[in-house]
Amino acid sequence: MADLLEDKVGLSPIRGSQNNDRVADVVFIHGLGGGSCTTWARGGAPENFWPTWIGEEFPEVGIWTLGYETSVSSWKEQSLPLPDLGIQILEELSTEGIGARPVVFITHSMGGLVAKQILNQARTQGVARYQTIAANTLGVAFFSTPHSGSNLANFAEFASVILHTSEQVKELQQHDARLRELHGAFLSFVNERKPICRSYAERREVKPGVKVLHFNLKVPKGILVVDATSAEPNIPGERAIPLEEDHISIAKPASRRARVYRYARSFLRECIASIEHNSEEQRGFRNTEASGNSRPEDRPEKTRTETEQPKEPSPARRSEPKQNGVPLRINSYTRNSP
Predict the structure, then answer these.
(1) Which of 132, 145, 257, 282 has the highest local Cβ count within 10 Å?
(2) How many angstroms separate the CA atoms of 174 and 79, rounded?
(3) What pLDDT digit, counting tens, does each position of 196-213 carry?
(4) What does 270-285 look like in DSSP terms, one character per residue?
(5) Residue 163 lies in a domain
(6) Does residue 138 lie within any of the structural domains?
(7) Residue 89 belongs to a domain
């Protein structure tokens, strides 16, 4: 457990990841200035590392964390570093077998943008092993992710502090249109694949003097990094859930009774329940087919037409004995009602 909170680049197994019979994989993706482990542990304490709590409560799933590097120079160029990062992460996920079974992403801040980027590229790059990841994505949870990019001023200012650069906020705001485009692609994915989604919004400012994750930098003034408008995903049937947390604490529940953890656990339960529901439906369909009791609408058109057309009575039926004018039938077959 001593080296558990060592931040690493790439995909790291946390719990249950070696179980070949696991029903799903859960991948935690940190945000800008975060780390694969430190993002998810209040005070950096191993006992507060809540991906292990999830693993304990859901032994049937594999728990992973994903770490990635953020280049300062790439933020000074005209485009976000997300496209190259997306392909790199897709190959990392594929190499570790992510996508072979249902997968759920739990993301913080820019990690939500990374998740949307990899799902978009998985669908559009024409690579079969990447397409499998998109097809098997069951759910995505966003903690303080700037979805629409409608108000990036505070997020940009926060990024400037983290990146330790004098780059002007206005220059970072130029990424606004690209974030809108990225979210539009994600909404198309939601409409097509119907994943389970949750979005959680911070309501408190990051206080002045608070150290920013593993960069060991301090915020010069109070900042509400992702406001309510940016945190709203605009997904049909969903609304951003406000939490009394700041941009950093929203990913670091103090205990298993904290709302952050309980809400994330409920989200994951819903995802697992949908797997079980789909499995039961598939088993029922196979059993129905095997027993020959499939509904007429489930059968091929030709078979249904042939079955339902009236037939001439067989010679044997014409010679059936009668009692009081009623035919005496033996071993008659009655089709189950649909």
Answers:
(1) 145
(2) 9
(3) 999 999 999 887 665 555
(4) HHHHHHHHHHHHHHHH
(5) yes
(6) yes
(7) yes
Angle, CA 141 vertex, CA 274 and CA 234 arms, to 5° = 100
CA–chain centroid gap for 319, Å, is: 66
Quickly state the pLDDT bin for 221 (edges 50, 70, 90): low
Given this model, what pLDDT does residue 276 score? Answer: 80
How far, in Å, CA of 60 to CA of 167, rounded? 46
Q: What is the pTM of this model?
A: 0.76
| Residue 67 located in a structural domain | yes
The CATH number of whichever domain residue 138 belongs to comes to: 3.40.50.1820
Cα–Cα distance, 208 to 224 (Å, whole number) = 11
Looking only at the bridges linking them, the beta strands covering 211-212 and 217-218 are: antiparallel
Q: Which residues contact 210 (CB under 8 A, 6 or more apart)?
A: 218, 219, 246, 248
Strand partners, 137: 103
Tens of pLDDT, residue by residue over 105-131, are 999 988 998 999 999 999 999 999 999
3-state class (DSSP) for residue 180: helix
How far, in Å, CA of 61 to CA of 41, rounded? 20
Residue linked to tokens 């191993």: 46
Q: Is 90 exposed, middle or buried (0-12, 13-18, 19+ CB in 10 A)?
A: buried
| Distance, CA of 295 to CA of 190 (rounded, Å) | 31
Helix axes 82-95, 110-124, angle to 10 degrees: 70
Counting the structural domains of the chain, the total is 1
Summarised one tens digit per residue, pLDDT across range 239-273 is 999 999 999 899 999 999 999 999 999 999 999 99
